[in-house]
């Protein structure tokens, strides 16, 4: 497998869109993947496309096509020193590009991506916006499941990395592709797990900066979203209404961007949320129904809250991820 060998230190892109430092333990050239040991000593197979190597071979070749320089010399990235044919990089490298200052797409995303959303100001933010105007793959070549949640190639977002649609990703309303929270520059608040209450358009479809608008939410949606987020964070099914559900909602009230619900007085929130939990048996189960404390609530099905545009009441199929999640959030 060109460019990566056993023992190499690498950056591996994970399903959250971020890069993590690891060391290559094994290389499978047939399946085009590597067994990577990460800093927490966990080991996972990672696709070659999601690995960014620091090493540069003795023979100078393009890190995309593995071919030597053609008529003109390769352009080397200022940060990683990897060489590119101008036409092999996305977007194509301009003829006037200077190897003393040019930075490749991989390095731009490595620096700019952040939890809660990519950086919005400075040189790398501007470079990222330019890179995001074109995807480094063909959307039409991806093989999607019937609900358009996962594709067999595990190729998502501007970064072409793996992803899990229910874990802090936004779906473009125009092209249908899913984008990592960490790679987007339009969010004002971090996403909760399973939060799809956004009308989002990616930079490719917008031919410029992303556009985003918060969709209206009901009390049922809020209760469902909070329970889903807590269930993934805490690895439990049932939560105490006062000490966990209501407490989380109050602590994150402004970050939830609840629209018309935002102005609800604190003393009225409790009644509305509790009524939503007790009145929607198709979504929620209370402790008294399973002979536990009546103040406990959980989801009937651990799935994100549905949108009104969803064709089915609940999306229950688990996300497919060929590498599995490396660490719990």
Automatic annotation (TrEMBL):
**Chain residue ranges for the region called Disordered:** 304-329
List residues of the PHD-type domain. 59-110
Instruction: Supply one GO BP term.
Output: negative regulation of gene expression, epigenetic
Query: Per the annotation, which location comes first and is thus the protein's main one?
Result: nucleus
Q: Where in the cell is it found?
A: Nucleus
Per the record, what is one GO cellular component?
A: nucleus
Q: Which GO terms describe its molecular function?
A: chromatin binding; DNA binding; zinc ion binding
Alphabetized UniProt keyword annotations: Metal-binding, Nucleus, Repeat, Zinc, Zinc-finger
UniProt name for this protein: PHD finger protein 1-like
Natural source organism = Salmo trutta (Brown trout)
């Amino acid at each position: 497998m060109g460019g990566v060998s056993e023992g190499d230190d690498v950056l591996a892109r994970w399903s959250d869109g971020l890069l993590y430092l690891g060391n290559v333990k094994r290389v499978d050239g047939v399946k085009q993947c590597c067994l990577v040991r990460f800093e927490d000593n966990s080991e996972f197979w990672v696709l070659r496309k999601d690995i960014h190597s620091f090493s540069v071979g003795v023979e100078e070749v393009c890190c995309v096509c593995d071919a030597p320089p053609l008529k003109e010399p390769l352009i080397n990235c200022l940060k990683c020193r990897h060489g590119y044919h101008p036409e092999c990089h996305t977007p194509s490298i301009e003829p006037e590009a200077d190897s003393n200052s040019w930075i490749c797409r991989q390095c731009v995303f490595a620096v700019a991506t952040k939890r809660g959303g990519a950086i919005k100001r400075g040189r790398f933010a501007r470079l990222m916006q330019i890179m995001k105007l074109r995807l480094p793959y063909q959307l039409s070549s991806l093989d999607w499941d019937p609900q358009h949640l996962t594709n067999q190639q595990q190729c998502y977002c501007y970064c072409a990395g793996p992803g899990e649609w229910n874990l802090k990703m936004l779906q473009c309303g125009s092209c249908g592709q899913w984008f990592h929270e960490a790679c987007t520059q339009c969010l004002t608040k971090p996403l909760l797990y399973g939060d799809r209450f956004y009308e989002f358009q990616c930079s490719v479809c917008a031919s410029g900066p992303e556009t985003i608008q918060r969709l209206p939410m009901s009390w049922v949606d809020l209760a469902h979203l909070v329970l889903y987020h807590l269930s993934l964070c805490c690895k439990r099914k049932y939560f105490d209404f006062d000490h966990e559900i209501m407490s989380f909602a109050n602590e994150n009230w402004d970050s939830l961007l609840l629209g018309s619900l935002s102005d609800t007085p604190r003393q009225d929130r409790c009644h509305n949320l509790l009524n939503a939990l007790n009145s929607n048996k198709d979504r929620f189960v209370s402790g008294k129904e399973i002979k536990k404390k009546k103040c406990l609530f959980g989801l009937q099905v651990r799935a994100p809250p549905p949108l009104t545009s969803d064709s089915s009441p609940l999306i229950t199929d688990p996300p497919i991820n060929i590498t599995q999640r490396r660490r719990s959030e």
